[in-house]
Amino acid sequence: MSQFRHTKTLIIGSGPAGYTAAVYASRAMLEPILVQGIEPGGQLTTTTEVENWPGDSEVQGPDLMLRMETHARAMGAEVISDIIKELDLVNRPFTADGDSGTTYSADSIILATGARAKWLGLVSEEKFKGFGVSACATCDGFFYRGQEIVVVGGGNTAVEEALFLTNFASKVTLVHRRDALRAEKILQNRLLNHPKIETLWFHELLEVIGTENPLGVEAALVKHTKTGEVTKIPAKGIFVAIGHAPANELVKDVLEMHNGGYVNVEAGSTRTSIPGVFAAGDLTDHTYRQAVTSAGMGCMAALDAEKFLAEAS
Questions:
Q1: Among residues 88, 97, 99, 136, which one is catalytic?
Q2: What's the rounded Cα separation, in Å, for the pair 26 and 266?
Q3: What's the predicted TM-score (pTM) here?
């Protein structure tokens, strides 16, 4: 049954940016509604050990996000399990249609939809998604106990995935296009010194090889980026960890973008190209992309929304 809800501030997304915005918006008496989206808690729910969250030398990603959600609720935010399918930023008040049938009306909107894993775009990659090809080690690593695994990438995500997978795999091969990693030095040191991990420099994934019935991965076909030599690596699982792209589907044709799809905001603020619409976290941040900076931007967005509503009244 369809339902109509109005709020001063609608927050779309539930990672560190969204939950922090909810805390601050609640304290500002904006009575925010937060719609969690397709992945409640965001990317941190697929991360195990988080070692760079201030105040916690080590914390599990899902636990941290649960604490943030609890905090937001305790401050008075209404947290709703729903997915926004369509957003109208042209008319006032703004409206958002939820998958549940609920239409949300809002005087201001904070976009905190984050980012999603990138894929290589291979036909064979698509074919074996969910059948040996994955972008989430914490989701699927358990299924590869005692198996050989390939991880593709060279940044923080790839190194973290490779290290995590050593808890299950007999061997992890990291395939990287270059001869140097982009990950943090502490992570690089752990990876390069790990006895279960072999690094394959100057290589890229060419094809996923597997069985048809049932579908399952058997090997990774990789190509040397300089010589063109092709090598077949036995693997039961292939994890693609080449970064993330902003989840901008709701606003890509409405708001100003920059750097390949990130929502553009005014310098030193979270104000987008439409007054009353604010963006925070990985949706707009192509530089830092950290949980702590996302949380900081969530705070900024709530304060920017509070100021906007005060001036509009």
A1: 136
A2: 24
A3: 0.84
